């Protein structure tokens, strides 16, 4: 089953908590604090696996959670770091932030790895808070939480040559003729429901990868038919082989078909429309009038396309000529990276612990200054407000972070209350 789009959830590991511990031995009555640090949480890492060609695995597993770091222990024992979690994806996978739709990473090389979520840092044990004036700290630092987010994975096939054209014009037949690929072939529209890849190996030319894209129809760029789902698979191609049915056995005009497909390419991406094209008039073995091809070629040349070939994929007439021309053009066209516009790139926000201060009316005519936010949660989880040394550290952090200065700027007075979650104290200048 070919799956080229998936939505998954990733979460890196939380950091382990620092330990609160004191050395206690028979002949060492004043051993002091010896709580070790917590371990780092595991990262979530994407890794290219060239053996994969689809995102099928993500149809069955959608949540990926890395291991947490272990908590610190006494005797200055550090907690073990959490194991990193590697997620294997096919080459050509694009990772997007689900909420914004912006691109985080493009994994288009065989050795690509990308850290999508870094594990949380381990918290410091109480031995790290020991100072000449605070010799027995009864508090430690909690581990930092890991990062989490929903992602969209999109697979854009890595092919040198892309076959485009209306349904049932012979794209799959050409692919099966020049490669070992075995696409489904039948005489009805939309025989090809998924993209097919094949490697073209011909003596005397460099091998290259060819992709047979499901038939594009008029309106594909607006989502009609199968075209929009698979147009992205030809974004990375260096050359397009545009196939039309020259036989006219279905009552279609080959030149009108050629124009319509190019209009859809242009609507989807101007850069895709600008890609070099080899125009192939297929099913020439059923052509009743040679003049039909000559008129078609003349009109296509007038549009600026000078490489027009007559071919029959079924009888292999003219196939070698088309393939050799494609190989020659590939030697002149360098491999370029997929360009991602700046406005489509995902810029991660700096991970910071924030707070805000709001003023409420107190029960005794005074005011209550409510400090809330992620900074408050982390601070309160790190200290023991019922222990003197820990409470001193708590006030020191409020002062160093500028919260006390901000409270003064807001007009706090003696007797007013400062509340942080469930803990509150009376402000005294």
Model description:
The chain has 3 domains: 1-154, Distorted Sandwich (Spo0b-associated Gtp-binding Protein, Chain: A), CATH 2.70.210; 161-332, P-loop containing nucleotide triphosphate hydrolases (Rossmann fold), CATH 3.40.50; 356-426, GMP Synthetase, Chain A, domain 3, CATH 3.30.300. The chain is an alpha/beta fold and 429 residues long. Helices cover 21% and strands 22% of the residues. The protein has a 6-stranded mixed sheet with strand order 10-11-9-12-13-14, with helices on both faces. The chain has a 5-stranded mixed sheet with strand order 3-1-8-5-6, with no helix packed on it.
Highest CATH level, the class of the largest domain: Alpha Beta
Question: What would you give as the CATH superfamily of the largest domain?
Answer: P-loop containing nucleotide triphosphate hydrolases
Low-confidence stretches: 183-192, 218-227
Side-by-side strand order of the widest sheet: 10-11-9-12-13-14
Biggest β-sheet description = 6 strands, mixed
N→C terminal distance: 70 Å
Proportion of helical residues? 10-25%
**SSE run:** EEEEEEEEEHEEHEHHEHEHEEHHHEE
Structure annotation, total helices:
9
Strand residue content: 15-25%
List the helices and strands and how they pair.
Elements: E1 5-11, E2 44-48, E3 63-65, E4 85-89, E5 93-97, E6 103-107, E7 113-117, E8 148-155, E9 161-164, H1 171-178, E10 196-200, E11 208-212, H2 227-231, E12 239-245, H3 254-268, H4 270-273, E13 277-282, H5 290-302, E14 308-310, H6 319-332, E15 356-361, E16 367-372, H7 374-382, H8 388-400, H9 403-409, E17 417-420, E18 423-426
Parallel strand pairs: 1-3, 2-4, 9-11, 9-12, 12-13, 13-14, 16-17
Antiparallel strand pairs: 1-8, 2-7, 5-6, 5-8, 10-11, 15-16, 17-18
